[in-house]
Amino acid sequence: MKNQVPYRLLLLGPALLSCGHGPKSKPETPATAQTASKQLPARPAAAPFVGYHRYRGTVGNMPVTVELTIGPEYAGDSVRCIGHYYYDRFGGELALKAGRPWQANKPLALAEMVETSDDSTQPVTAHWQAAQPMGPVLTGTWTSTAGRQLPFALHEDYDGAVRYEMLREDAEGENCPANQEGGQQFGLQATEYYLHLLGPDTLQPGLRRLQCPVPAQRRAQLQEELKGLGCDAERYGTSVYREVTYNANGLLSLVQTDDESLGGAYPLGTNTAYTYDLSTGKRCDVRDWLRPEKAGAVAELFDEALRADSTGQLFAGEKTATDSPKKVKLADLPAFGLNSEGLFETLGNVGAPHVAQRLPITIAYAKLVPYVRPNTPLARLLLARGLRKP
């Protein structure tokens, strides 16, 4: 990251948090255990604090947003804690992932790690130790591997955001003679992830258009997808994956990846960013929030970010805008989405698909300040982050 943030918390690449065990209590002797059982009634186990949870608060004096999800990462997995956090002023989202099963009754312990681009070991850079189990309030101490300590204080907060979950639906078709390998036939498959809004947000009229279909409609939809595939010798199935990239300041942004499996190791996919105004549920075009006369300057910022990316050797010398910035129009810019760091475009299947698929190229919010139209959602976002004056 180019932005320098104290305490070594903004690092190159995402960081990971794992939810582990809290400190072990002193074991009871048989005598003390028997006495305790006579004096205290049996206490029911705490209900799992599962699902998506969004926190606001501080690490030291730095405002942060933390988003955690408690649940199985895949079907049949043990319950884990995964998510991410970012510093409100600087962005630069840091991914969070559990390293061991989560325990509802234990004080929440988080290990912050740097995510590497290969399969090498992910080094731990800091530890978060909460004083309480996962719940509406989390307080504790952040400790870097160098020994620096800072207090953190978080509270669950959905102001300008929504509670949600992603629901997965799968459907299988009949085996196709064409889809055969080593004497084994493979049936066509269709998978889709749906955004399911939770709580009172489901009752807002404007947000009904964002709500996923009911189960019967979802299943019928996937069956139609399978019929559309037929027994195509080159296609094994389709999938639609949706991932929320921004949930704050009255805006919800997500990336939809549409994949077609051709039987190889890597699917052929396209990535599309969608951004919605949470007050109306209407889809927004982020480009409309930029100054039209500054489209060329924004295109140059995108080209700069493209060349500066850590995998930039795949795209060296490529230009995304015309050679004359003065002739660039807003419609010539990528259909940007939002993330914690800035406006981004997700590239896919450029050069080598298995390397470049879902590669986000981001323009930091701080660089966009001169090019944003006033009285737009993006201008209000910059104001809330302290990057723009009222």
Lay out the secondary structure.
Elements: E1 15-16, E2 19-20, H1 30-39, E3 51-59, E4 62-72, E5 79-87, E6 91-96, E7 109-114, E8 124-130, E9 137-144, E10 149-156, E11 164-181, E12 184-197, H2 215-229, E13 237-248, E14 251-261, E15 268-277, E16 283-284, H3 295-308, E17 337-338, E18 342-347, H4 353-356, E19 359-364, H5 365-368, H6 377-384
Organism: Hymenobacter negativus
Protein name: Lipoprotein
Region (Disordered): 21-40
Write structural notes for this entry.
With 390 residues, the protein is mainly β. It has three domains: 127 residues, Beta Barrel (Lipocalin), CATH 2.40.128; 102 residues, no CATH class; 99 residues, Actin, Chain A, domain 4, CATH 3.90.640. The protein contains six helices and 19 strands. The protein starts with 14 loop residues before the first strand and ends in a 6-residue tail after the last helix.
What sort of overall outline do the alpha carbons produce when their principal axes are compared?
A: globular
The gyration radius over C-alpha positions equals: 24 Å
CA(first)-CA(last) distance:
27 Å
How many structural units, i.e. domains? Answer: 3
> Beta-strand percentage?
35-45%
CATH class annotation of the largest domain = Mainly Beta
Largest sheet: 10 strands, antiparallel
Secondary structure class reads mainly beta
| Helix content percent band | 10-25%
Overall average pLDDT: 75
- Count of discrete alpha- or pi-helical segments spanning 4 or more residues: 6
- Annotation, overall tally of beta strands: 19
The CATH topology assignment of the largest domain is Lipocalin
CATH architecture assignment of the largest domain? Beta Barrel
